Amino acid sequence: MQIILYLSVALIAIAFFVLVIYLSKTLKSLQVTLTSVSNTLTGLEKQLNGVTTETTLLLQKTNALAEDIQQKAESLNSVVDAVKDVGTTVSKFNGTLQNITNSVDQQVEESKEKISQIVQWSNIFLELKDKWQARKHGKNELNSKEKQRVRAH
């Protein structure tokens, strides 16, 4: 029975030795993996620092650009207000011109009859003038004929 006990202890020792060898291989493999992970994390940390720096610069540029856009938008608002004022002025000017045109049209309509009467009176005056000149001319001819008769006698 002692021999079984020695064999059992020897078997346990061999099993433990095999276990230690496999555990050692596993730990070495784990060490290589952890070293690789550590190197990867170090590289990632450097890259992350670079990205963080670039992101900070980009954020600063974006803020400056946003501020510039806001200033330009404010300037553009004043231009839009000025254009709006010009539009209002042009609209008022058009309204004034339309009122003047309507007033002139109304005055022409009201004056049409007066103008027509003036034209009629002018025609009558010209006819009277022509008749008067014709009559005067006729009297002058009669006077000339009488003078010729008197001379002939």
In sequence order, what are the helices and strands, one letter per element? Answer: H
Please give the number of β-strands. 0
Radius of gyration: 62 Å
The percent of residues in helical segments reads over 70%
pLDDT averaged residue by residue: 88
Strand composition percent = under 5%
Structural class: mainly alpha
N- to C-terminal distance:
209 Å
Tally of alpha and pi helices: 1
Report the sheet with the most strands, covering strand number, pairing sense and barrel closure.
none
Stretches where pLDDT is under 50 for at least 5 consecutive residues are none
State the shape.
rod-shaped
Polypeptide structure, described:
With 153 residues, the protein is mostly helical. The protein is built from one helix and no strands. The chain has one helix at 2-152. 0% of the residues are buried. The model has no long low-confidence stretch (mean pLDDT 88).
Briefly summarize what is shown.
With 153 residues, the protein is an all-alpha fold. The protein contains one helix and no strands.
